[in-house]
Design a protein that fits this description.
heterodimer; A: 107 residues; five-stranded mixed beta sheet; four-stranded antiparallel beta sheet; B: 115 residues; seven-stranded mixed beta sheet; 11 strands
Chain lengths: 107, 115
Amino acid sequence: DAKTTQPNSMESNEEEPVHLPCNHSTISGTDYIHWYRQLPSQGPEYVIHGLTSNVNNRMASLAIAEDRKSSTLILHRATLRDAAVYYCILNNNDMRFGAGTRLTVKP
Amino acid sequence: EPEVTQTPSHQVTQMGQEVILRCVPISNHLYFYWYRQILGQKVEFLVSFYNNEISEKSEIFDDQFSVERPDGSNFTLKIRSTKLEDSAMYFCASSTSGRRTDTQYFGPGTRLTVL
C-alpha cells in the first residue's frame, strides 16, 4: 500500500494561511489524495480530495505536485476552530490513517 | 445536513462481556465502515460492509468481532467477549459507494471502556 508522510505538528497564527505538506512518493496512478481532519473529541471529517489538478472548496485548497509525489493542503485563513489533526490519505476502499499533522492555531 | 449517528456515546462494560455498538448511516449510503481509535493513537480501519457482506477487514477484525445490518437503518458492531485492550473510540462511517473518490462521513463515535 502506498504510504504518506506528514510532519507531526505545525503551528499557525490565527487569520494567517497554513500550508500542510504531505509526501506520497509511492502513489499509484489511480490513487486519489484525500484530506480529512479530526477536531478534538470528534470523528474524522472530510476536507478535500483530488487526483491531479489543484482543487478548491469552501474549506481549503489542495495543491498537487506535477509528479503527484507530494501535495499541500492550504487553509487560507486559519481560525481557532481549525485546530485539529489533519490526515493525508491515499484513498482505497478502506482508508488507512497515519499519525497526521497536529495543527495548533495561536490567537 | 444528513449525518451518521452512533449510540451509545459512552459504553462501560466488564471484561468478557459482549457489547453491541450501534450506528445509523446516512440513508442513501450503501457502504459502511467501522474504525477504532485507542486513546492517543491513530484511527485504525476495522471493516467495510456492502450489500450485507464484509467487503474488507483488517487484521484487527478477528473472530471476536462481527458486523450486521439487522434492518434497513442500523449497522452494528458486536464484540463477543471484550478485553481490556478493546477500550477505544469506535467510529462508524458511511459512503454512497466504495469508489476511490467517495467521501466517508464519520459519526461522533462511541467511547468503549472495558474494566
